[in-house]
């Protein structure tokens, strides 16, 4: 059986990472497209923007429910590759159909349908594939994956506004839907394979299959891990951080409070997307070099400083500096969630609990996005919300850090298990 050189990564390994990143870019595109497409959609349907933005909560909570209840089952039965092809194609078709709606209930129905498999197929699979294809350099490859995903934000910021301005929100949704189907099929057919053994390779960093399988059998059994306070702390902390990240959907409104017009706010949003391409690689590399705990603490400290700057400063230069610091925390949930989960509980629990861990991101966004908006409506600006977010962020960093450190202690007291193949081809 062939193997990638231990000092390098084979072209097939790179294809899997880049393909997973392109799929993740669709998630980023959909996330940021909402802010551009919903205002004209709401005006066209004659409803309030708040009513239209319920789309976000429905789709996110639906995806989180599927991740929590059926995510591991889908990974085991379909495998990442088939899940990508089925889920991504279905999601793209549902997004395309939004371009034909005429009633609010139709938007909600399609939000439910689009959310069913989107996160499982386009986000959870990326973490599962990095875990299956790499024993070493997992953090760096998770960073590369998210760096590629950042191009979805660039498309949303630079391309989609022109399409919506020229052709309207209906064509905007149709373009997003078509892109989702085309990229899903291209990546699923040409680039993605569920496991290295499907193409006669080993996971990067493994000398043989025994070593590869041993890496997947260490740590705490999933059922035992789920009953620990460490797992509860990890889930609560990660959900809170993702809720704070929903601030990105309110950047234009918040920047207006800080003295910036829409054009200036747009440049900062684009700058954030461009920065994320580089900061993802940095954070992933730091997680490999320093370990997950120090890398996460760095991101948490930067989050606190950035929120403080958003709260206490105004004007373009200071807000640009805050965005620069915010660029690492924004990509912390998708990069660090699988890394922290594995570090805290080991390989045995990783795939069974990956759905629940990944669900913290859509759940956090579903909770945080309307709360940021309610704070703005109630107080006229984001000052109180930013102050509360500072306290929540500090608590979340403490919870995750404790879960990681004490979870690693639990692993040391857990006996080794027989290895088993967790991902089908």
Descriptive keywords:
425 residues, 0% strand, 15 helices, disordered N terminus
Biggest sheet architecture = none
Arithmetic mean of pLDDT:
85
- Our estimate of the beta-strand percent is under 5%
Low-confidence stretches: 1-7, 417-425
- So how many helices? 15
Tell me the total number of β-strands: 0
Structure classification:
mainly alpha
Explain what you see:
The chain has 425 residues and is mainly α. It has helices spanning 11-45, 49-97, 104-133, 138-158, 160-167, 169-191, 209-215, 222-226, 229-245, 251-257, 262-290, 292-312, 316-345, 347-379, 383-412. Helix 9 (229-245) packs antiparallel against helix 13 (316-345), helix 9 packs antiparallel against helix 15 and helix 12 packs antiparallel against helix 15. Residues 1-7 and 417-425 have low confidence and may be disordered.
